[in-house]
Amino acid sequence: MSITVVLSAEVPDFNKWKVLFDEDEDKRVKGGIYATPHRDLDDPNRLCIISQAPSKEAFMALFRDPELQKRRLSVGVVDPDIKFLEKI
Question: Is the pTM of this model over 0.90?
């Protein structure tokens, strides 16, 4: 059974972040993670990503990847809020 992951964060430049997000799609797919980005209508530098992942562990393994951490920091994602949800 898969889980839903909701990640939200503020970034200095949404467009710069979006380029990086798109470039990392292959890594997400290889990890079984399918993510859809959203942008806050009232705060254009606030993002929300809604993902499906095989498990919390699978998501966190990708999220903790040192290369991806470095890339996130390079576009200003510092302390994202992450929620893990299961369908009931």
Answer: yes
- Chain segment 59-71, per-residue pLDDT in tens: 999 999 999 999 9
Instruction: Domain 3-85: state its class.
Output: alpha beta
List helix spans (H) across 1-65. 14-23, 25-30, 56-63
Phi, psi of 46, deg, nearest 5 = -100, 130
Which residues have CB under 8 Å from 25's CB, separation 6+? none
- In three-state secondary structure terms, 3 is strand
Q: What is the sign, positive or negative, of the torsion defined by CA atoms of 62, 27, 14, 84?
A: negative
What are the residue ranges spanned by the domains of the chain? 3-85
Rounded to 5 degrees, what are φ and ψ at 62?
-70, -45
